[in-house]
Automatic annotation (TrEMBL):
Alphabetical list of InterPro entries matching this protein: Mn/Fe_SOD, Mn/Fe_SOD_BS, Mn/Fe_SOD_C, Mn/Fe_SOD_N, Mn/Fe_SOD_N_sf, SOD_C_sf
Matching Pfam families: Sod_Fe_C, Sod_Fe_N
Protein EC: 1.15.1.1
Keyword Oxidoreductase included in the entry's annotation: yes
All residue ranges annotated as the Manganese/iron superoxide dismutase N-terminal domain in the record: 5-87
GO cellular component term of the entry, any: cytoplasm
Protein name per the record: Superoxide dismutase
Amino acid sequence: MTLVLPELPFAPNALEPHISARTFEFHHGKHHKAYVDNGNKLLEGSDLKGLSMEEIMKKTAGDSAKAGIFNNVAQVWNHAFYWKCMKPGGGGQPSGKIAEKIKADFGGFDKFVEEFKAAGATQFGSGWAWLVLDGGKLKVTKTANAECPLTQGMTPLLTMDVWEHAYYLDYQNRRPDYIATFIDKLVNWDFVNANLG
């Protein structure tokens, strides 16, 4: 397959004032596009070219000889997933199956928020905070750089990008403020419910 830069699922200014159109101009238009372009160059002539992104990620994870391919393909996948995790007027308490599952597996929404905020705030350097399904149970985890829980047999349900390019233009060094805003104002719980199946 050829990697493609997906359209944002909302207008670039739709999440203002929480995330600016200028951030999306760089984050989607430059960073995400660069992963697509670099990934396509690296896959050219490779025996991985015909595979899906998920298959490429699973085959190249942990292989230092294929780190360039993994990093770029995984970042294309992670970002495409991240855009869908947000929506205008999102955030706050979930409803539906995910609300019940959060209550069952975390003991309540506040405990989930506490764990998710901690994962995002304590990820040293660049990376991601995730809500995943692991063996039928919800879990909060974090990954460094381009890593994705998909390659560890987990099902990603929600992610938050904590690379600086995700928030620096709007929040500077205040990562905890970005994290709180993501949870309170941006999470697309409909998408999370759809991922839960």
